[in-house]
Amino acid sequence: MRTKAVAATALLTLALTACGAEIAPSGEAAAGSDHYPVTVDNCGTKVTYKAKPARTVTNDVGITELMLALGLTDRMAGYVMPDEKGDLAKVPWKDGYQQTAWLSKQPITKELVLDAQADLVFAGWHYGFGEADGFTPQVLAGLGIDSYVLSESCRSGKGPERGVMSPLDALYTDLANLGEIFDVRDRADKLIADFRAQVAAVPQPEHRPGVFLYDSGEDKPYTSGKYAAPEEIIAKAGGRNVMGDVADSWTTVGWESVVQRDPEVIVINNYGDTDAEAKRKFLKSFPPLAGVAAVRNDRIFVLDYVDLVESPRNPAAITALAAYLRSTPAA
Question: Percentages helix, strand, coil for the chain, rounded to the nearest 5?
């Protein structure tokens, strides 16, 4: 998935305020405490960290905010994300952005993390890591730099397909693992408990409308399959991902399959140069979609990119989408 960052809506940020970040106290145990070395399971691989990372570089907004939500700015060398990270004035961990460096708006590279003197890179497959760019955990290990792979992006091992666990499980897994890696498990456990409670409080309707996630693309749409975060965001909000049988995370499908599945609601992923309003206009004017229920009834909802990739904003996105879906009449 491309590294694009956008602002959260006021509705989402209000739902997040109960789960705000804490800034790590200066008196925390030193990296050489009895807690280390520590080993975690990361995408099916046991990875050992000999000491608490001190200069972490994160890639992309959701990944960065996992660190900020845990109050780990004092363990960051900085973050990499493009220019449209958006207005963060109401984000609970907005102060964290001010307490660490915005290293680059361009794709993350070996040279960048070496210049930052990073001892850990937190990224994901298609969220920074990729063989084509020569930027992988294996390459970084050869440079003496540890890595942690975003669980949403884990590969199946059978090919390039990503996704080996449900998206919310990926969020909770990463929070728990980061809690171990940085010796802040109490903070991680509290966030996980708060997020679980927030999701559990969302009422589930009798009618579960079919939902299509539209990311981008005109010749063919880029969307969410079974293993990207929108799958579970939609399900927990009371909907049904019409592409939930596609065994991949973020992927391309054909418009014919969208028409055939006739979604009652379309969720637009808002980011990048083509904004949500331009995407809405395209969907409503694209002739093959004219008969699709969501277009015919103007049932189009907008969420931001950071809400729809693994991030601490996922529970708030579920709450917001659920409220919209409850207003969707049964077919």
Answer: 40, 20, 40
296 three-class SS: helix
Q: What is the mean pLDDT of the chain?
A: 87
Among 136, 210, 177, residue whose Cα is nearest residue 44: 177
* 71, two tokens: 């109050």
Local structure of residue 269 (DSSP, 8 states) = E
Give bridge partners of residue 149 from the DSSP assignment.
123
* CA atoms of 171 and 214, how far apart (whole Å): 22
Q: Angle, nearest 10°, between helix axes 314-325 and 229-236?
A: 50
Residue with tokens 């509705």: 11
Cα 55 from Cα 122, distance rounded (Å): 11
Is the pLDDT confidence value at 277 over 60?
Answer: yes
Cα(241)–Cα(162) distance, rounded to whole angstroms?
17
Question: What residues contact residue 87 under an 8 Å CB cut-off, 6+ apart?
Answer: 7
The residue to which tokens 């102060």 are assigned: 95
Q: Is the peptide bond before 37 cis (omega within 30 degrees of 0)?
A: yes
In this prediction, residues 278-286 reach a mean pLDDT of: 98
For residues 144 and 21, which has the higher predicted lDDT (pLDDT)?
144
DSSP 294: H
- The Cα–Cα gap between 18 and 38 comes to 30
Distance, in Å, from the CA atom of 76 to the CA atom of 66, rounded to the nearest integer, reads 12
Q: Please return the burial class of 220, using the count of CB atoms within 10 Å of its CB with bins 0-12, 13-18 and 19+.
A: middle
Instruction: Read off the pLDDT of residues 284-295 as tens digits, 9 standing for 90 and up.
Output: 999 999 999 999
Q: Locate 222 and state its tokens.
A: 């880029």
Q: What is the pLDDT of residue 149?
A: 97
Pairing of the two strands 102-104 and 45-49 = unpaired
Confidence band, pLDDT 50/70/90 cuts, at residue 158 = low
Which residue bears the tokens 């399900």? 235
Residue length of the chain:
331
| pLDDT for res 329 | 64
